């Protein structure tokens, strides 16, 4: 996975290769190790990245969500083991910042919304499979692509969910 921050740096997350940052001006990479400590990622298997001002949200497989402060290098970890975080699973495969600045996280179990006030997650929808991608359209509808359960649409104005799943018929999700 890739993303670019406001300074033009390219952040690269890889499966079992961890997190790296490429600085085009210097044409150099900096690696961010995993392990224990305030400046270490919780796990080296990265599946999602999202820039949120001076923070980089990093979704890992079995290591929860890591939020890297890009100014000082400190990492905060959110996991399902931390009851206060209320995250529904240890594996985050998609992270999305919407037009209002809210952070959405898709895990191997469901869809979570980060609450900045309480510094925890709201479990929005249990889907029972991995949510691979998240987007928001011009009308403000949210779209969640899952592995094996089709696409979920969320209308925040009405609070309603709709699932589009495979059907072997014309005009259906293929």
List the helices and strands and how they pair.
Elements: E1 2-4, E2 10-14, E3 18-23, E4 28-32, E5 46-52, E6 55-60, E7 65-69, E8 75-78, E9 92-97, E10 103-107, E11 110-115, E12 120-126, E13 131-136, E14 142-146, E15 151-155, E16 160-164
Antiparallel strand pairs: 1-2, 2-3, 3-4, 5-6, 6-7, 7-8, 9-10, 10-11, 11-12, 13-14, 14-15, 15-16
Task: Tell me about this structure.
- This protein is mainly β.
- It has strands spanning 2-4, 10-14, 18-23, 28-32, 46-52, 55-60, 65-69, 75-78, 92-97, 103-107, 110-115, 120-126, 131-136, 142-146, 151-155, 160-164.
- The strands form four sheets. It has a four-stranded antiparallel β-sheet, with no helix packed on it.
- The radius of gyration is 17 Å and the shape is globular.
- It starts with a strand and ends in a 10-residue tail after the last strand.
- The model has no long low-confidence stretch (mean pLDDT 94).
